[in-house]
Structure formats: C-alpha cells, structure tokens
C-alpha cells in the first residue's frame, strides 16, 4: 500500500480525491497495489464538495500530512508561491515524494525545489502543471526521449483561447469577450495572468526545461498578451489566410533557444489553428519522430486530477519496486538493508550548453496594422522605410476611402528580424502620415 496526503481541497484537490476514491479498484487492478488516500488538509473542511470521504480524513493542519510518517506522497494543490513552496520543501526534507500542479511555483522556484529533491532522493511529479489532462510531460520525458526536440508550440491557456475564439466567431471586441469568459467562469475576476501571457509563460518554462535540458527560465521568456488584438485584426488575419492564437513557442536553432509567448497568426488550415474554446493543443517537432500534436482539456477538476493521479501512480510504482528490491537484497545478504534503487526525481535537467536567444534576434514574418492618413504616396513612404530595414512586403490590404482621414493599412511581410522591425516601426510612427501607433503581430508558418 502507498499512502497519500493532499494539501488543498479546492477544484483540483476535489477532482483528485474523487478519482482516487471512485476509481480505487480499477487503479489497484492495473498497478498491482493499493493507493490509499489517508489525509486531506484544507482551511475549509466544512464545505460540501459533493464527495463522500472516509471518516476522519479531513484536517485543517497541513502538518498532519507533512509530519505523518505513514504518508509516502504529499500532493500540493493549493497553488501560488507561499505557503506552497514551504509545504513542498518540508515534505521533501521529510523524505516524502511530492506531486504538484503548481506551474507558477515550479516556473519561478523550481530550480531550488528540484535541487532539494535530488539531495533528499525523492521524486517530484508535475504532470498536472501543464495542459491539464494532456500527458505532455510524460510524452516529452518518455515518449519522445529518443528525439532531439526542434520546436514546441502550444495553445496552453484556455482563457485566452476562449476569448480569441469568441472574438473570431462572434466578431466582438476583446472587452466583451473577456466579460463573457468571466461570466462563464473561464476567466478570473483579475485575469491578468491569463490575458497577459504570464500563465502560458509559466508552462512554457517547464516544457522548455524538459525539452532542452535547461534551467527553468521564466524570467527570460518574452511575454506579450492579447489585450491589443481587435476584431478588425482578426478579420484582416482571416482575409490573409490566418487565425490569431496566443502561442507559447520554444525553438532550437544554431545552439540557441527561442522562448516567447505572444499573439501569433498561424495559417487557418493548420490543425492547431482549429483548436477553439477552452481546449489546449501542443505541437512537438522531433528530429526522429517528425511532427506530433496533442489535444485535450487544459484545465478542470477531473482532467487535471487525472494528471495528478498519473503522477501518484508513477511514483507509487517506484516506491513499491524499491521496497521489493531492498527486501530481496536483505534476504540474500542477511546483512544491513541498503538503499538499492535511487528514485530519480530530477525530471528537469540543467546541463545543456544551449543559450536563450534574445527576442530582438528572432526572425519571423510580421503583420502590421498602420493607422495611415488616406492620401497619395503613403504606401510608398511606409514601404520605403521598411525597405531601409531589409523588410520586404508580401501582401497589402487597404479597405475604405476616407480622404484626409486615418484608415487601417495592413501589410504582411516576408521573414524579417525583430530588431529591424522594432526600429522600422519606431521610425514610421514618427511620420506625419501616421495617426496612431502601429500594431504588429508575429506570423508562424510557411512563407507565402
């Protein structure tokens, strides 16, 4: 038997408990031993969560989980940085294995947590920290272990994806789509982490660390949200053959890695562009396997709880195997019991020579929306500045005529360097023919 203690009985904690209790017999049959939910700690133990628990399992004191010598795995599901970090470190120092869904904590404090886990020879499972029910951690760590990962693209924030889908389908502006997302419970009262790309960057830090054996690098990820995207941009993107998604992107090229989160135009015939609503999708390109895509629910009590239980089972198998090995060794040697099989928890390696590329050095295609006065010679002046910075034009859209007034002028470029784009836009925005700041969106996919 492997004993489990959960700290945090909110949405994911409830889903995890429901799976552990409701599917207990199925899980035991499949793995050959019992997973026993021994304790659940939460500040609110009176709220009815619609689940029947064994008598005496609830406690308000996290130490009842952390200090219980019979508990093998501590499951942290409270979220946030503090006190979650303190609980996890205490569990590790008490030689207990840990499972967490806390992407913000791992992305910002994970290097310390994994170092401590390695020192104390315990496992840290974090499948639930990225993309909910999609087993992307296991896929990268195990299923694609033979591959050099060339690129990872992800729609890994359901809130932003819902908002952009709403804007696309219903032709509404950002503010209206956000209100609808909040009304339906897809967005928090303060949606900053979701709409500004921070949540996606937390998850990208974890995916990139696994994919490229680099330290968790949240602070080095370029982050840009969706608040400046308009219904008009979505309409122009569609006319050009694209959809706008908030993508988390990691690419490896020439011993450098790109790490960026931002609105991205992708061809509307690509499968990932068809991922709508609150669903997630992650595309992984490996040198051996080629292109692969993983799709599913990125959040919710049961999908995320499923990922938590998968980690519990994986660690449980190692515990049981290690115990059997130790017993066998003891019987054979009739001597003191020794540690036979170290439970390797260092899922995030830190030994790569790869460097993170500066955002100004990346190359992409670009969408520009200029607010230009409708008068002769405007396009030639703008294209002249772009040409000075080695930016060539692929397509142009200009609709409506309002002589002497500002109108949107849409330009799609061929591949250009970010630093050149920034300089060109700054120069164009100073021209008297431009009425407002230029919006630009990076474009991924094959050049037209």
Characterize the main sheet.
12 strands, mixed
Distance between the termini: 59 Å
Runs in which pLDDT lies below 50 for 5 or more consecutive residues are 334-348
CATH-defined superfamily of the largest domain? NAD(P)-binding Rossmann-like Domain
CATH class annotation of the largest domain: Alpha Beta
Mean pLDDT rating: 91
Q: Which CATH architecture of the largest domain is right?
A: 3-Layer(aba) Sandwich
What percent of residues are in strands?
15-25%
What does the overall shape look like? elongated
Total strands:
18
Kindly state the percentage of residues in helix. Answer: 25-40%
Given helix and strand content, the structural type is alpha/beta
Fold topology:
Blueprint lengths: L1 E6 L3 H12 L1 H8 L3 E7 L16 E2 L3 H4 L6 E4 L7 H10 L3 E4 L2 H18 L3 E2 L10 H8 L5 E7 L2 H13 L3 H10 L8 H4 L2 H15 L9 E2 L7 H9 L2 E12 L2 E12 L11 E8 L3 E8 L3 H33 L21 E2 L6 E11 L4 H11 L4 E6 L7 E8 L2 E2 H12 L9 E5 L5
Parallel strand pairs: 1-2, 1-4, 2-3, 4-5, 5-6, 8-10, 10-13, 10-18
Antiparallel strand pairs: 7-9, 7-11, 9-10, 11-12, 14-16, 14-17, 14-18, 15-16
Helix pairs in contact: 1-12, 4-5, 5-10, 7-8, 13-14
